[in-house]
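Below sits the subject:

***
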Amino acid sequence: MQPSEIGLIAVMGAGQMGAGIAQVCAQRGYRVLLADAALERAESGKSGIVKQLARLRDKGKLTAEECELAAGRIEVSSSERACPLADLVIEAATENRELKLALFEQADALAPPHAILASNTSSISITLLAGRTKRPGQVIGMHFMNPVPVMKLVELVRGLQTSAETEATVRTLAEALQKTVIVSQDRPGFLVNRMLIPFLNEACFALQEGTGSAEDIDQGARLGLNHPLGPLELADLIGLDTVLAIARVLEHDFGDPKYRSPVLLKNLVAAGHLGRKTKRGFYAYDDQGMKLKTHP
């Protein structure tokens, strides 16, 4: 398949990442079917996109016409309807191995033979996902960073079976979305999360051991390492459940205890304190996702 032949993109999963992917694709002129297991979640995902577009309009970054056109390119759908129409399916579900395997089996059964199947997974093997399909050469990792409309990077991940044509097509699409592309071979955590998750874990261990407060740990990273966000703030943004899931994949797949997760992180996830999306994690947040001064 040539890059110019991608006319319709199906996004499976209408959460924070799926909605962000749908938004950037629509803003760059692609038709998008936004699907989720529950149609209500897909509708909620599109409503969030419309609000984000309105904020960009209010800031003068988009015209009213551009907002209207982008929103009009996104249609809420079910996977059963979206996949058969798609030239590219991007899976953006929760970081759960069994769920993603099931979604890839479904997409493979429903999508037309020419369609490429991509995963936004942060850590799960693309080779494994491809092995559940009858088109392994057309399977690739397309890992967007959070928040998708803001972050410039897309990490492409080559499974053992991924064809050069598939990689070239998806690279060209990512560049058309005005993203910078890096390529990782299929290893646990790929490039970005293999570096990031141990850093987030160590910050959490430092907090757990009382080495410093959350505020001091994050301030140290911002001012001492010139990071825009501290590690605990970033973990709250990503979602503590996602951070824990990736850490567990790294520990399991590498068999190396250096990737183990702190008890504090496990307890926060068990309590349902997942970061900004639940208004509580390492910090407390208001309804707009702004950090409150009081510690949770």
Residues 3-185 form a domain with the Rossmann fold fold (CATH 3.40.50.720). The longest strand covers residues 139-144. The chain has a mean pLDDT of 95.
